[in-house]
Amino acid sequence: NYLLANSTFKDLPKEVTDYQVNQCLNYYYTMANHYGYDLDSFLQTAAGYDSADALLENMSDSITQYAREALLYQAGAEAMDITP
User: Rounded CA gap, 80 and 28, in Å?
Assistant: First the structure.
């Protein structure tokens, strides 16, 4: 938590944020399939969003935070010469 709060990030690579977006959508898509819905219907019924776009707009700060965490983990692993 300390490192994350005290780290500076120049730019977040699109690949990292795209990965987080895909993870978010995949979670809701899996839940939708589990309950027999398409994604947008599930989001409207269970999560209170009009669409996947509305979900992603609302989750943008969290997605950015998750991307920063992933980059911090990567930097720590590289600094310790750990290969995941």
Answer: 35
**Chain mean pLDDT for the chain:** 93
pLDDT of residue 10: 86
DSSP string of the chain? -HHHHT---S---HHHHHHHHHHHHHHHHHHHHHTT--HHHHIIIII--SSHHHHHHHTHHHHHHHHHHHHHHHHHHHHTT---
Residue whose structure tokens are 């990030």: 9
Residue 43 CA to residue 27 CA, distance in Å, equals 11
15-18: Cβ within 8 A, 24+ apart: 16/67, 16/70, 16/71, 17/63, 17/64, 17/67
Q: What is the pLDDT of residue 42?
A: 96
Among residues 45, 25, 26, the alpha carbon closest in space to that of 35 is found at 45
